[in-house]
Every structure is written in structure tokens, then in C-alpha cells.
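Deviations from the work plan: none for this task. Representative record:
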Amino acid sequence: MSKKTVLFACGTGIATSTVVANAVTEAMKERGITIEPRQCKATEVRSELTGVDLIVSTTQLPSDLDVPSIVTLAFLTGMGKAEALDKIEGELRK
Amino acid sequence: MAEALMNHIDPEAIVLGVDTDSREAVIRLLAEKLQAAGYVKDSFADAVLAREASMPTGLPLGHAVNVAVPHTDPEHVLKPGIALATLKKPVAFANMEDPDEPVEVGLVFLMALNDKDRQIEMLQEIMATIQSEEAISGLMQASSVDDVAAVLK
């Protein structure tokens, strides 16, 4: 599979999205998917979507984006992490 | 476990058993500590509060004590560090995932962040800590900075 670009978003674009980007990139590597991570503020996703395959955010995103998105706290709280990874893998293998 | 989270928390910025009804009071108290210790500019507290209103940081953990990790943009920060408060009774923050949903928070990590690369370890350690029920209950029972250090070392 070719490299997938995932946009990780959070309120500031430097804090929780960094934790999530690391966790997801490593977990997907183990599942055979190479991710090119990008990060931004949730309020700025609309202007960052070029070439993006999936958005993973810790906070609410603008509605009607043209790219699939997953909002989850699983990588911060540990709750539902396996399910969130399955969902991300499912989107990236589409 | 978070072996080195204590390295990022300033002992001068640890406040245990805070007794208040408002998240603003908790944030201002911790911001004051960070400012006195040279971590943040005087614009930091207002910036954190503004961000908390639109982009909240409450994290529901599914056990007795929930956590909030307030922070803001790097321009209000001088150097990275963390302030910690335990609350005598929970205070309402909003859920990071859904600003309309209140989260009763008992443990607050106020984060001064200004360097994406250097923060990764610090953030991962906070998240590892809050994923441990044992660490959270140890922090909630702490009555001194030494108690906190014993949990986080």
C-alpha cells in the first residue's frame, strides 16, 4: 500500500494532536500502513486538506468536510483504543 | 508508567486540595504559579481561559476522577513546563470531544507548551499517567510535593 497522509487536529495543533499522531503512526506501522502525519488546529483543517486521506481529531471538526474524519479521545484516555485503531485502519485500507 | 513526568512539573507549581467551585479560579491559580516561576507571560491565563471556552480540555476517563489538560498557543509561553492541581471537590470543565458535555474534573495539569518536538515526551507522560488509575488515586491522596514526586517518579 502506498503512503497515507493523515491530518491530526486538536485545539492548538501542537499538543494533543502530537500524542495522537505518534500513537497512530506507530500502531499503523505495525499493521503495515505507512502514515505521513500532518498536524493543524481543528479550526484550520479546511485549508489543510490537500492530499489528505483521513483526519483524526481530539476535538470537534467543522461539518461537511470532503475528507473522512474520526474524532476520538482514545489515544489520550486509553479507552476504546483498539476500536479506534481498527476504524482508522479500515478507513486507510478503503 | 510515567517515569519522568516529575521532571516536567515545577514543584513550585503544585497545589494540592484546591477548594473552589470554578475552573477559572483553578486555571488562574496555576497560571500565577507558572508565571512566578518564569514559564509563561502575563497573557497566558486569559489565553488559556479563552481557549478553554471554545476548545475545552476535559478528559472523561471512565473512573472516579476525570482530568483536564488546559493549555494555549505558544506565543504566551516562555519555556515548557507543567503545573498540577488536585481539587478538594470536582469542578466542571467541558469535554474536549464535545464542548456541550460537562466533565467533573478532580485533577488539572496546566501545560505551558511552545516547542512541538520537545513536548512529545512530556505529553506522552501525562497521558500515560492519567491512563493509570493507581497513579491518579495516588495523586488525589497526595498531601505534599514529596507524595506527588513518589507517584510520578
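The first helix of chain A runs from residue 16 to 30.
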